[in-house]
């Protein structure tokens, strides 16, 4: 087999060199020209240098942010915090996928195949069978992948890699369930009637788990044996399986002896709060959202010929967040400069707690819509106040003393304290300052912490220092 591959490569090399019009010159590989595409809802933050850290007196005397000149590369950033509506898109996709997976597995176990219904509305559970169930109708590539990967699965999941049939619509009306197998699957996904609240049929959110794989490049880069016959890359491939539904009980747990039941009951799912920032999401859930957003976009691009896939959406590093929040203003206290949290007309410039016990002095008791107040010079909304935001960086009070001056970051997986920035609706003005550092544990969720995502800009020519 190896001899055949080597021979094929040699023949290909011979004929390719004979039939090109390069006249034997070094002209490079011909390919499509790359055109950067600004992701929907994001803005381009041009790379550059800035002074990171406290430019004013450190009133809290934390001493964890001494000034340091650093440089960051260009990237796209969400104009707003991720909203309830946007996060619900993630939840609904996972819910749909899990439902279809369970239907397909049961159809596989029962030996049912498509054809029991009209193929569009799900006339039987067989219509939800895996699309690769009949290898004879596959393309050569799909058949190869099925025979070598999909059909064998893994030890943890024997159905890993099987393709779901997403064209058939799911039935939400219990009176229209097509057969007893469909009833069995749906019954396993919803809470029993004895646990229903106000008679509502409720999906068991503990079933909403999103699994994704990522590579620990930091660890792999330090291993000198990676790429050799002694060590495989799979050693550094990590698989995460995350429950992704927000913790709505944070509205109760975060505030003892306080009446916040309406926020617990309605904030995440009710359309009235669709454009408000999602909260109750841990750092791990935010990372899972980033992985899904990347996969969702590339799944669409894969269907379009002639387009390159996008690189990953991710959480911003601490330095990227501060650079973006400053909006190009050097040594400003807040995203709008400062030093005050009011404008010249006496109006507050962010959603926070201006006075002791007075949460509503700025016009909002809890959060406000993600596109509230004026954006900064990079067209980013609520970089101060509303909700604090997760970053990708681990918190170390001495980090500024040793991090690199180029794209600084502390990606310490063993450190569960993750940096949050920007302050929130329940914080005093100190936490709204662009240089103030705070942290929360990666597996914790709060009613005042959300997030926004970034994506690296492909290419290096876009910086704010360009002439």
From TrEMBL:
<dbReference type="Pfam" id="PF03781">
    <property type="entry name" value="FGE-sulfatase"/>
</dbReference>
<dbReference type="InterPro" id="IPR016187">
    <property type="entry name" value="CTDL_fold"/>
</dbReference>
<feature type="domain" description="Sulfatase-modifying factor enzyme-like">
    <location>
        <begin position="239"/>
        <end position="454"/>
    </location>
</feature>
<dbReference type="InterPro" id="IPR019866">
    <property type="entry name" value="Glid_motil-assoc_lipo_GldK"/>
</dbReference>
<dbReference type="InterPro" id="IPR051043">
    <property type="entry name" value="Sulfatase_Mod_Factor_Kinase"/>
</dbReference>
<dbReference type="InterPro" id="IPR042095">
    <property type="entry name" value="SUMF_sf"/>
</dbReference>
<protein>
    <submittedName>
        <fullName>Gliding motility protein Gldk</fullName>
    </submittedName>
</protein>
<dbReference type="GO" id="GO:0120147">
    <property type="term" value="F:formylglycine-generating oxidase activity"/>
</dbReference>
<feature type="domain" description="Sulfatase-modifying factor enzyme-like">
    <location>
        <begin position="42"/>
        <end position="97"/>
    </location>
</feature>
<dbReference type="InterPro" id="IPR005532">
    <property type="entry name" value="SUMF_dom"/>
</dbReference>
